[in-house]
Write a structure and sequence with these properties.
CATH architecture of the largest domain: Alpha-Beta Barrel
Number of helices: 13
Shape: globular
CATH class of the largest domain: Alpha Beta
Length: 347
């Protein structure tokens, strides 16, 4: 296992992070794992060198945090625990969102469930259009100053909103997001257009969720239907993706997997680990064999040619204004004539 710096924090986390979304019996379609199964998965992850664990209060309505906390209790000091706030945790009008009222109450509840007196990384799960970002950041800052949270991060924010939050933090001397947790996979490369350039510029970490596109990039599916009826995506078709394009990607991954005597899933994870912007890839498992397969991805090193092949087959059309910027710089001699010719060809 290798370790990568989390943004500019100086904290190093394992390049694979165990996600606890499968822990807890309330989300049966996701995992429905009890304490004994979670203990086994967490123990094996620790033995493999994983020191980073991710959950959220909304996962199985708190059960995931409680189960993870019990599984890590004896080794709490060895690990980095990340959890999230934003989702609905009860029927009350204020038991949801990113208001100061909900964030403070939610953090106290997460601390209790996790069985710890501090959270290493506290992340907003997504934006809340009902709450001013300055209030959210102010509440998170107070938690940091109180020692209940070490660092703050965000998840699923559009690039403009992430940049806005960083500007508010700087202007108001508030705690700033140190990383973003975002969907990134061979079948979903949207963040390459805006978010990844932003985090490189601002020195943020990138935590990847659903690196296998909800299980699609495991090779368990064919154009005729699922090979494995037990696969999560067979019952929970998420995240959304262009399946025709995704099947083409899997077709390109299979010979690479055979060449490395690995699995298609390992190739998908290895491709992400080859990306400089990636800090840690969050893996989830319902069974020990799934975890073992994912763990082996750290030993699968793709060649430059293999990465280029996967980049090509998974490439997505650049959105505006990215395609305009790709036309070139007309400050250089001759570029204007070349640009005109290119535009004529593409017209």
């Amino acid at each position: 296992m290798k370790y990568r710096r989390l943004g500019t924090t100086g904290v190093y986390v394992s390049e694979l992070c165990l996600g606890a979304m499968t822990f807890g019996t309330q989300w049966e379609v996701i995992g429905a794992l009890g304490q004994a199964e979670a203990d086994a998965l967490v123990g094996r992850s620790l033995d493999a060198g994983i020191n980073f664990f991710d959950t959220a209060d909304v996962y199985s309505t708190g059960d995931s945090e409680e189960i993870l906390g019990h599984a890590l209790a004896a080794r709490r000091h060895e690990v980095v625990i990340a959890t999230k706030v934003r989702g609905r945790m009860g029927p009350g009008a204020n038991e949801v969102g990113l208001s100061r009222l909900h964030i403070i109450a939610a953090c106290e509840a997460s601390l209790k469930r996790l069985g710890t007196d501090y959270i290493d990384l506290y992340q907003i799960h997504r934006s809340d259009p009902e709450t001013d970002i300055e209030e959210t950041l102010g509440a998170l800052t107070d938690l940091v100053r109180a020692g209940k949270v070490r660092y703050i991060g965000c998840s699923n924010l559009p690039a403009w909103e992430l940049m806005q939050s960083l500007a508010v933090s700087e202007r108001r001397s508030l705690a700033a997001f140190r990383c973003t947790q975002s969907y990134y996979a061979l079948a979903g490369r949207d963040i390459e257009h805006d978010t990844i350039p932003l985090i490189r510029d601002q020195g943020l970490g990138l935590l990847v969720w659903s690196p296998l596109a909800g299980g699609f990039l495991t090779g368990k599916f064919t154009r005729d239907g699922a090979r494995d009826a037990d696969a999560r995506r067979a019952a929970f078709d998420f995240p959304p993706l262009d399946k025709d394009r995704a099947f083409d990607i899997v077709d390109a991954m299979e010979p690479i997997a055979r060449a490395h005597r690995g699995s298609v899933a390992q190739v998908a994870l290895a491709w992400l680990l080859a990306k400089e912007a990636v800090t840690s890839v969050i893996i989830g498992a319902r069974r020990m064999d799934q975890l073992e397969d994912n763990l082996q991805s750290v030993d699968l090193t793709l060649t430059a040619e293999e990465v280029a092949r996967l980049d090509e087959v998974s490439a997505t059309p650049a959105p505006y204004p990215a395609w305009m910027l790709s036309l070139g710089d007309d400050r250089r001699p001759g570029t204007s004539r070349n640009l005109a010719a290119r535009l004529r060809r593409e017209a």
